[in-house]
Amino acid sequence: MAFRTFIAALALSASFAAPALAQDIAAAKTALAGDYDRIVKELITITEIPAPPFGEQARAEYFAKAFKDLGLAEVAIDAEGNVTGLRRGTVAAGGALVVVSAHLDTVFPKGTDVTVRREGNTLNAPGVGDDTVGLTGLLAWVRALNAAKVPTRHDVLFVATVGEEGPGDLRGVRHLFTKNPYKGQIAAFISVDGSDPSRIVNQAVGSKRYNIAFTGPGGHSYGAFGIVNPMAAMADAVKRLYETDVPASPRTSFAASVVSGGTSVNSIPDRIELQVDMRSPDPKALERLEKRFLAIVDEAVAAENYARSTNLGEVGAEKTRIGDRPAGATADKHQLVVTSQKVLAEHGFQTQLLASSTDSNIPMSLGVPAITVGTGGGGGRAHSVDEYVNIERNAFIGGLSSGMALLVAVADLDWTAK
Ligand SMILES: [Zn+2]
Hints:
This protein folds into 2 domains: 20-204 and 327-412, 3-Layer(aba) Sandwich (Aminopeptidase), CATH 3.40.630; 206-325, Alpha-Beta Plaits (2-Layer Sandwich), CATH 3.30.70. The protein contains 11 helices and 19 strands. The chain has helices at 3-17, 22-34, 36-47, 57-69, 128-147, 171-178, 230-241, 283-307, 335-346, 361-366, 393-412, and strands at residues 73-77, 83-87, 97-103, 117-119, 122-124, 155-161, 186-192, 199-204, 206-215, 219-220, 253-261, 267-268, 271-280, 316-325, 328-329, 352-356, 370-373, 379-380, 388-390. The strands form 4 sheets. Strands 1, 2, 3, 6, 7, 8, 15, 16 and 17 form a 9-stranded mixed β-sheet that branches. A hairpin with a 2-residue loop joins strand 4 (117-119) and strand 5. Helix 2 (22-34) packs antiparallel against helix 11 and helix 3 (36-47) crosses helix 5 (128-147). The longest helix is centred in the C-terminal third of the chain and has 25 residues, at 283-307. It is elongated and about 80 Å long. The chain starts with a helix and ends in a 6-residue tail after the last helix. The relative contact order is 0.17. Bound molecules: zinc ion. The site of zinc ion has 5 residues, from helix 5.
């Protein structure tokens, strides 16, 4: 073998072993920085496509087209509404892959004004940071990685999920891990959510949410005085809930948060509804709290039926679980967490490991390594109509660059043994 051929062969094999080289990443960052105006413009465009819970379709279609235009393979909208597109790695097709995802939905109902207002270096609009900046980041990363021809060891599946926020109850990511054709191939999951790149969520705060309808015979406030009252049972249940001990660490919480019902000021109500939210990053603590709450409802109903007359009928309770997000965690020492911290530190971010409720709850609960990170230049007031992001050029591109480098580093780890 001629020396030159030998060197070429060596270079070829090296490119398979360690796909993304430092100069590749540097070229991709240059491409990203040069793309600034377009990224900001696209952030505005996507923010202004309304995406209320269960109404993400227009945004999903925008993404399917964008993924195709960027040359991603196998672009599809799955049965739940998630958009997927594959960027092939250097290993054989069909093996372990890394998912990077952002969520399509916002918390804002249909009809909310989503017009973006630009004031100097900030963009203001509902949903602009949570999670449109993440969605825009995905597209910017593919464009920059393609421009610089950056290879990765593993395939990267780019995903825009539906149903991350409250009422969606993680329906998109749940589908991805239980029914989507790629479900068995996902070795690591990165959710890009929010606009702060120093936050790494590696603990999933689980939640259980209930609607309890307390029912009873109802009657005249004066004429039927003495009969059971579902409102009294509801109040008793709330009081008992607030007497419940929960662990301070890991932080476990409950809230009686919404109440509705009643007929008129001079009626004993026949129906009162109560909503309760319970949370913990510890699955066992959450399960104990849920069991205790359900027992409390029964105790409060029994106490009311004992305390007052049931001549016209008894008080009862209809319990409906309206939210179920599993708890879980990715260990602090896991290669996904360690690598992410290292990359973000190299980009000047002082990272913190946090617990939160995000799309990563589902993979974490299933034992698939997952983290949620922010990207971009920071922002605030998420879930309010005053939501904003900072688009000052250096901070914005710096945040996006760190996220892209993190993604490449994770896709270059060895996930085949997982
Ligand atoms: Zn979000």
